[in-house]
Design brief:
Elements lengths: L1 E8 L9 E8 L4 E5 L6 H7 L8 E6 L2 E2 L6 H7 E4 L12 H11 L4 H14 L15 H13 L5 E5 L7 H16 L3 E5 L3 H5 L3 E6 L2 E6 L1 H5 L2 H6 L6 H11 L11 H16 L1
Parallel strand pairs: 3-8, 3-9, 6-7, 7-8
Antiparallel strand pairs: 1-2, 1-4, 4-5, 9-10
């Protein structure tokens, strides 16, 4: 489990606090979406999960290890892999194979084990054919998959992803999101920053950040059932939720905490059958 206890953090000693008393627990194997307006502290929060940032006050523990303890930081970074919004910020190899091998090499694993892990990671993200390709010749979506493979080669228990589908075309977006879902189904914990409410709706749990604090925390149904609170901080709603809200405002007896198309269609079919009768 990852536990944050009353965490505060600011980048500039004289500046505004980016995190203001954040307390949160993330269970192993959980798929959690982290959403909120720009500047709310999402990226700052996930960088605390593998000790890239350390709290000014409060406490972060990962698998029972305190991130402030330098003797535990290498273990923590093996437990929680980080995929940045821009993959160029973490890709260090000339070829795909070299880059994916970087993490296991830093763990000082035997060469045979490193090769095994590289092959395994590339297969898990569906790009074994890219092993010997030059990084400079890859598309944005392929670079994102290489970054994920590099993290997987360390075999973390959690992966924190900062808008993994940002700036990708629809096909590349689907490919990346399918990989994330597959990893979750295999037991990897996922912490997923996104501005896409449809993506957030597919997760197990949503944490909404605002002004450096946890603003809401619950299942997608619970979160999107609080449409007014989301709109108050400038958050967009899923199109399905907006449609059902408009129907309810027009007097139709529908639920507004619906987060998927199937349930929304069932609501609309039910309405249609009542009017038909």
């Amino acid at each position: 489990m990852i536990i944050l206890e009353d965490v505060y953090y600011k980048y500039d000693p004289e500046g505004i606090e980016a995190l203001r008393g954040v307390s949160l627990q993330i269970r192993e194997g959980e798929h959690l979406a982290l959403i909120g307006p720009n500047g709310c502290g999402k990226t700052t929060l996930i960088r605390h999960l593998n000790a890239l940032l350390l709290p000014a006050s409060g406490k972060v523990t990962v698998g029972g290890c305190n991130t402030n303890d330098p003797t535990h930081q290498a273990d923590i970074r093996s437990l929680v892999g980080m995929v940045f919004q821009n993959p160029d910020n973490q890709i260090v190899g000339v070829t795909v194979e070299e880059d994916v091998a970087f993490g296991p090499e830093n763990l000082r694993l035997p060469t045979v084990e490193i090769k095994k892990r590289v092959t395994e990671a590339l297969f898990r993200v569906g790009i074994p054919e890219l092993a010997y390709r030059n990084i400079e010749n890859l598309s944005g979506g392929e670079k994102r998959l290489v970054a994920i493979a590099g993290v997987l080669a360390v075999r973390p228990r959690y992966i924190a992803l900062d808008e993994p589908a940002a700036f990708l075309d629809p096909d590349a977006t689907k490919r990346v999101l399918d990989i994330i879902d597959k990893l979750h189904s295999e037991g990897v914990g996922i912490i997923h920053i996104t501005h896409n409410m449809a993506e957030a709706a597919l997760t197990q749990r949503i944490v909404v950040m605002n002004e450096g604090r946890v603003y809401l925390d619950g299942t997608p149904r619970e979160i999107f059932g609080k449409a007014g609170m989301l709109q108050k901080i400038g958050m967009q709603l899923p199109q399905i939720t907006e449609l059902l809200i408009k129907l309810k405002e027009s007097g139709f007896p529908v639920r507004t905490d619906i987060v998927n198309m199937e349930d929304a269609l069932e609501q609309i079919r039910s309405l249609a059958s009542k009017f038909k009768d």
